[in-house]
Write a structure and sequence with these properties.
Layout (H helix, E strand, L loop, with lengths): L2 E5 L5 E7 L2 E6 L4 E5 L9 H14 L11 E4 L5 E3 L1
Antiparallel strand pairs: 1-2, 1-5, 2-3, 3-4, 5-6
Length: 83
C-alpha cells in the first residue's frame, strides 16, 4: 500500500496511507484523521494531500494547518520513491 510523509506549515509530520476510499493521516503523537478521496494516494500532488489534511482537520473542528514542505513517498514494499 503506498504511503507518504508530509509536513504541515507548523512543522508537524503526518504519515499518510490509503484505507479504501479514504486517506488516513497519522500524526507523530499517534492521533489519526481521515479524509475521503476520489483518487489513489500515489496520484495526488503534495498540495492535494495537504488540502485533504486540512479538510480532515476541519471535519474534527480543528483549524486548518496549511501547506508545508517535506513530501516523501514510499512504494508498497516500503522503498522510498520520491521527495
Amino acid at each position: 500500500m503506498p504511503e507518504r510523509i508530509v509536513t504541515d506549515s507548523r512543522g508537524q509530520r503526518w504519515d499518510v496511507r490509503e484505507d479504501g476510499r479514504s486517506l488516513v493521516f497519522r500524526h507523530q503523537s499517534g492521533n489519526e484523521l481521515r479524509a475521503r478521496t476520489d483518487r489513489p494516494l500515489d496520484q495526488l500532488s503534495t498540495d492535494e494531500v495537504l488540502a485533504a489534511l486540512d479538510d480532515a482537520r476541519r471535519a474534527q473542528g480543528l483549524p486548518a494547518v496549511g501547506h508545508g514542505e517535506l513530501d516523501v513517498a514510499f512504494d508498497p514494499e516500503g522503498y522510498e520513491t520520491g521527495r
